[in-house]
Amino acid sequence: MSADYNVFITEETIEGADDGPLADSTVAVKDNISTEGVRTTCGSEMLDDYVPPYDATVVERLKDAGATIVGKANMDEFGMGSTTETSAFGAAENPAAPGRVPGGSSGGSAAAVAAGEADLALGSDTGGSIRNPAAFCGVVGIKPTYGLVSRYGLVAYANSLEQIGPLAPTVEEAAALLDAISGPDERDATTREEGAGTDYAGAATGDVEDTTIGVPAELVEGADEGVRERFEASLDDLRERGATVEEVSLPSVEHAVEAYYVIAMSEASSNLARFDGVRYGHSGGFDGNWNEAFSKAREEAFGEEVKRRILLGTYALSAGYHDKYYKQAQDARAWVKQDFDEAFESVDVLASPTMPTPPFEVGESLDDPLQMYLADANTVPVNLADLPAISIPAGETDGLPVGIQFIGPAFGEEEIIRVGSALE
Amino acid sequence: MSDTSTGSEDSAPGPEEVRHVADLARVGLDDDEVERFTEQFADILDYFETLDEVPEVERDADLVNVMREDEVRDSLTQEEALANAPETEDGYFKGPNVS
């Protein structure tokens, strides 16, 4: 069954509590989210046989809510990729577009929902890794405000950017899953009070009367014609339902992709230093000294995209280059935040195509990493600014799914859920 | 950094510098990877250069440290902590020589 799309790395049933708001739901959990006693590989040979001794906070909360976890979903290795082709366990496929990638890095999670192999799924989003596969697979995905959902037990890639979030067939179901996992956690000091006692599912009313939607020209210009047509048609729907649409300008987003990759790679180079093959993970054997054994374990067990990012991050942080790359990237991040703050003074939410293109063909983007990075242009600004965003299906172009993204102010999840639900 | 290398772009690292960074990062690379990375890094770093156009922006100053009391709490048992180690001895991790 799952072999069809290679959705799961590990199929294993983890039963939740007897009752709760998710008692009738099955959930696929991305394989970088720790599950006690069930192997968690991050799509890497490095963690091929790693079995966490504890649950991530979101997994505890799923169990408390009565959900049944049905497997650990396939993903780009350590979340590094936009297609789920960098998984050491083979690429996942797109159930909504045969021969195409499901997007990434949470491609297995989105494909599980699209194929009906799970009712719901958890992914993680560092620069678009929930919204990209949601758009490519024709499902709903939410990247929460930074600090809304605990990252305790999420294997870190770029801590200052990433959040765990839901994927589901409908806005209301995604919102209900977000209700279950959000809220403060004493084990993650970056969580905030705002997620406690939420009713996001109740916000999916479809009412957009008197809502002002801003459209940043910079996030529409680069999109394919077919994607733009679907985007404009969605805006027309919203206008008919009483929303106002106006153009806004976010000049800073032109630099978001390079800022994002410098910051993400820098954090990755530090975070992935923990994989030494001594405490856990693939061991290179103990010949020679520590540096040699460490290098050998990492040469053998990391895939090429992971090596590429560790090296570029190490380079960006190295003596003589720190100010040139990392410091300027932080300036760009501050600029992006400022631009969004100003935009939200005059509009309630912002809208853009989620991805500038329909899903890529399998193998299309692998040879040119820079082209793959550029595909994230519309999603990474949101992570740089710590904001919430939702991707909703916006129909198809030439039979391929298109997604529309709504971005809200910090902790404005209700707003984006309300506006998104109007398109269903 | 290394003055023995020249990349395809003025500021881009050449193969020797890619090897040097790989050493710093403790990631072994084979010759094919060094070749591919040298070529790709020229493109990618060239693109990162556009950060030069970013104006200086006043950063948010409202960050605060979040501390908790330093008190004993439940943690993994020694057995759990060692469960994923490739080699252990007498309750310790066993690794290669440090130098």
From TrEMBL, chain A:
So where's the catalytic machinery, residue-wise?
K30 (charge relay system), S105 (charge relay system), S129 (acyl-ester intermediate)
Q: What general EC class does the enzyme of this chain belong to?
A: ligase
Where in this protein does the record put region Disordered?
A: 90-110, 183-204
UniProt catalytic activity: L-glutamyl-tRNA(Gln) + L-glutamine + ATP + H2O = L-glutaminyl-tRNA(Gln) + L-glutamate + ADP + phosphate + H(+)
Annotated ranges, domain Amidase: 15-416
> Record's PROSITE patterns?
AMIDASES (PS00571)
Q: Which family does it belong to?
A: Belongs to the amidase family. GatA subfamily.
Question: What protein is this chain from?
Answer: Glutamyl-tRNA(Gln) amidotransferase subunit A
- This chain's source organism reads Halorussus gelatinilyticus
> Its encoding gene is what?
gatA
UniProtKB/TrEMBL annotation, chain B:
Its quaternary organisation is: Heterotrimer of A, B and C subunits.
One GO BP annotation is: translation
Which SUPFAM superfamilies does the protein's record reference?
Answer: Glu-tRNAGln amidotransferase C subunit
Record's keyword terms, sorted: ATP-binding, Ligase, Nucleotide-binding, Protein biosynthesis
Q: Which reaction does it catalyse?
A: L-glutamyl-tRNA(Gln) + L-glutamine + ATP + H2O = L-glutaminyl-tRNA(Gln) + L-glutamate + ADP + phosphate + H(+); L-aspartyl-tRNA(Asn) + L-glutamine + ATP + H2O = L-asparaginyl-tRNA(Asn) + L-glutamate + ADP + phosphate + 2 H(+)
- The answer to whether keyword Protein biosynthesis applies is yes
- Please tell me whether the keyword Membrane is annotated for this protein: no
Which InterPro entries does the entry link to? Asp/Glu-ADT_sf_sub_c, GatC
Name the chain's protein. Aspartyl/glutamyl-tRNA(Asn/Gln) amidotransferase subunit C
For this UniProt entry, the molecular function terms from Gene Ontology, in alphabetical order, are: ATP binding; glutaminyl-tRNA synthase (glutamine-hydrolyzing) activity
**UniProt record similarity statement:** Belongs to the GatC family.
Broadest EC class assigned to this enzyme? ligase
Looking at the Swiss-Prot or TrEMBL record, what is one Pfam family this protein matches?
A: GatC
Might you give the EC number(s) for this enzyme? 6.3.5.-
* Role played: Allows the formation of correctly charged Asn-tRNA(Asn) or Gln-tRNA(Gln) through the transamidation of misacylated Asp-tRNA(Asn) or Glu-tRNA(Gln) in organisms which lack either or both of asparaginyl-tRNA or glutaminyl-tRNA synthetases. The reaction takes place in the presence of glutamine and ATP through an activated phospho-Asp-tRNA(Asn) or phospho-Glu-tRNA(Gln).
